[in-house]
Design the sequence.
């Protein structure tokens, strides 16, 4: 993914880039001094957020050929963003900047560049400040007569991700957002493991061949993988469950990958990872309530669900419930001493261990399964 | 949509069938379900199913009332059972209705212990549904019979109340505009039966704006003459069990005879689609649920052998009953009778 924004892309505004809001806990002077000391001592931590567009940022409908044909003719204002996604992206940038971190937000789409203008305008309408957007050059594949590769995403997206990684500092921490519609879980996990050195460049090439990727892309991906400095680049992968996919079906990718049903759940996980502030989570919740008619009970159930699945701790959930209660989005969170005791007892009896570490993923089995599935279809 | 508490551990196919049902309801409707049961098991099952977490809450219940448990002692000693905790979700106001496919005796005993009986009601009645012939287009293929086990013997006044509650339920939930109500008896004549039945017959006939069609005999139950059949719990329970066993026996007899005779096998193959439809119609495990009437809260009792589609239907019926104001309608109808 190129570092420089494409023509017409919005760039971070100075107001957003300036992270000098005093914290509530420290006096302004000490806060400034501490921040200056930190800035002088170490380079700012870099957070990178990479988003898929269709079915992840946008609620695109391409289940039928007719719906697919409509997409290029849609006006920016007709495109619908997933509930809460714009508030989450804005919150992620603000949270990072307010903590003295640098931030990059990229979009990676398998749509053709011909719809780029509408997409950029849509992002602008949503108030999204981003650093780059990549489209798939379908025309070039058409001219080459590679019709099969029009729908092939693994090779294309993986190569673009590796290209994007090559321009980031080695210590940059990445958060990836995709959906269960295409191969995002596989692509993102594979990318994370290639970047970490758990999948060798030779193995990657073999996997891509097995996945029937475009041959020039296979070689390009292999070369990029060889050149990449190895490290744990990807902190979390969020997969927006757009299809009726059971979350357990994605357990094969390990605990690093979090299947989510809405962006409030993603926001809660990012709060858990100290990447999004509590205010950021509240803003996502408010967007869901005000723009998509969510009820408090839906937020409460969504939060309980990510806690049960081991992605958010009970303490973080309590902090969020309090904040949401103060914001009037949930009933005020007040527990009696007996209720607190019962909750502590329940936690002790059934501890939920949070685990976002990478598991050993059997990519050959996954690719074989997907290839067989595609053949059957 | 109102929230529905679901006893996740009740029924012969629980908790798998219950979790599947609730997951399906969460994807198909905007009903919120509160699953009550062993949280660790439920979480694992839920995660392996496609569901919408926005519409599902979990409440942990460490105990289970089994199908073989003696109802009264189970309700007395298993205070943290999924059934009792589900009922408490309704009593506390968190949910508007409760659904259980568990031990029927325990369901009745627990309801009598936890729920409030409507002011006018003398005894609660458990309803059941069974398939019957359709006499005219648009008629509900299922008839309602009550009571099927909440009572043993009843007075004439209690039978009248059952009739009023059954007719109100049929009108509101089954959308039968003017439900035909009958009294189960040994003959059509109004003077037949014991004093209770004779008095009940007279009182029902005197009710204004009430479509009482008189007595109905056992062989007429499946005819489609009545939408609501009223009887004592002892009799109703025997009737329901008999109807279920006849349907099962018919299917079993045909299946066992078929392998011995090639002509019968060929005939069955030709009739396969028809017999499948018949089996589906006679399969009480797919009906959904029937209400326990007479309480301030809504309780839908699903058949113990219910599979996921039946439990999902029971949840939808419960939500519909809450949304359409079944309890206020029952109160109003009972107040009219006096």
Sequence:
């Amino acid at each position: 993914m190129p570092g420089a924004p494409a023509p017409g892309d919005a760039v971070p505004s100075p107001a957003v880039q300036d992270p000098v809001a005093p914290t509530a806990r420290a006096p302004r002077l000490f806060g400034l001094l501490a921040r200056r000391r930190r800035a002088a001592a170490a380079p700012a931590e870099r957070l990178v957020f990479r988003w898929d567009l269709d079915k992840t940022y946008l609620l695109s409908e391409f289940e039928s050929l007719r719906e697919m044909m409509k997409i290029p003719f849609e006006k920016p204002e007709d495109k619908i963003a997933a509930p809460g996604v714009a508030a989450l992206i804005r919150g992620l940038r603000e949270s990072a900047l307010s903590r003295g971190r640098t931030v990059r937000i990229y979009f990676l789409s398998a749509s053709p560049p011909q719809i780029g203008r509408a997409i950029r305008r849509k992002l602008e309408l949503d108030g999204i400040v981003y650093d780059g957007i990549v489209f798939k050059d379908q025309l070039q594949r058409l001219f080459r007569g590679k019709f099969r590769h029009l729908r092939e995403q693994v090779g294309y997206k993986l190569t673009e991700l590796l290209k994007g990684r090559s321009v980031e500092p080695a210590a940059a921490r990445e958060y990836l957002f995709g959906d269960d519609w295409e191969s995002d879980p596989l692509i993102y996990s594979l990318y994370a493991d290639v970047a970490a050195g758990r999948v060798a460049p030779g193995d990657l090439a073999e996997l891509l061949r097995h996945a029937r990727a475009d041959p020039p892309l296979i070689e390009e991906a292999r070369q990029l993988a060889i050149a990449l400095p190895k490290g744990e680049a990807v902190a979390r992968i969020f997969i927006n469950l757009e299809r009726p996919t059971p979350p357990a079906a994605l357990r094969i990718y390990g605990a690093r990958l979090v299947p989510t049903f809405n962006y409030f759940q993603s926001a809660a996980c990012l709060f858990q990872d100290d990447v999004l502030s509590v205010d950021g989570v509240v803003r996502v919740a408010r967007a869901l309530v005000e723009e998509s008619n969510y009820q408090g009970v839906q937020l409460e159930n969504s939060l309980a669900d990510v806690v049960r699945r081991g992605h958010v701790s009970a303490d973080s959930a309590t902090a969020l419930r309090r904040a949401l209660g103060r914001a009037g989005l949930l009933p005020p969170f007040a527990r009696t001493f007996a209720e607190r005791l019962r909750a502590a007892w329940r936690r002790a009896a059934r501890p939920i261990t949070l685990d976002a570490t990478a598991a050993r993923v059997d990519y050959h089995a996954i690719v074989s399964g997907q290839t067989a599935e595609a053949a059957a279809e | 949509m109102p929230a529905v508490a679901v006893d996740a551990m009740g029924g012969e196919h629980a908790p798998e069938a219950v979790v599947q049902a609730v997951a399906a309801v969460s994807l198909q409707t905007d009903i919120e379900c509160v699953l009550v049961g062993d949280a660790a098991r439920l979480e694992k099952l839920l995660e392996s199913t496609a569901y919408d977490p926005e519409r599902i809450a979990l409440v942990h219940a460490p105990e289970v009332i089994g199908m073989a448990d003696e109802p009264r002692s189970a309700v007395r000693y298993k205070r943290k059972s999924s059934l009792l905790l589900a009922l408490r979700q309704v009593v506390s106001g968190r949910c508007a209705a409760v659904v259980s496919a568990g031990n029927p005796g325990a369901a009745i005993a627990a309801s009598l212990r936890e729920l409030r009986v409507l002011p006018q009601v003398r005894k609660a009645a458990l309803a059941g549904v069974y398939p019957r012939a359709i006499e005219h287009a648009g008629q509900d293929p299922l008839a309602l019979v009550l009571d099927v086990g909440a009572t043993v013997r009843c007075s004439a006044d209690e039978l009248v109340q059952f009739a009023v509650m059954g007719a109100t339920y049929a009108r509101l939930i089954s959308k039968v505009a003017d439900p035909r109500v009958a009294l189960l008896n040994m003959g059509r004549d109004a003077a037949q039966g014991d004093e209770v039945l004779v008095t009940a017959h007279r009182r029902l006939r005197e009710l204004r704006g009430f479509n009482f069609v008189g007595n109905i005999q056992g062989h007429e139950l499946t005819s489609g003459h009545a939408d609501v059949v009223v009887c004592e719990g002892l009799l109703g329970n025997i009737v329901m069990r008999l109807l279920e066993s006849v349907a099962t026996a018919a299917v079993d007899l045909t299946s066992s005879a078929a392998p011995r005779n090639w002509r019968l096998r060929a005939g069955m193959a030709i009739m396969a689609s028809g017999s499948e439809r018949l089996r589906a119609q006679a399969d009480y495990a797919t009906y959904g649920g029937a209400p326990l009437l007479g309480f301030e809260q809504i309780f839908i009792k699903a058949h113990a052998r219910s599979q996921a589609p039946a439990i999902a239907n029971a949840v939808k019926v419960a939500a519909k009953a809450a949304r359409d104001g079944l309890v206020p309608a029952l109160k109003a109808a009972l107040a009219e009778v006096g």
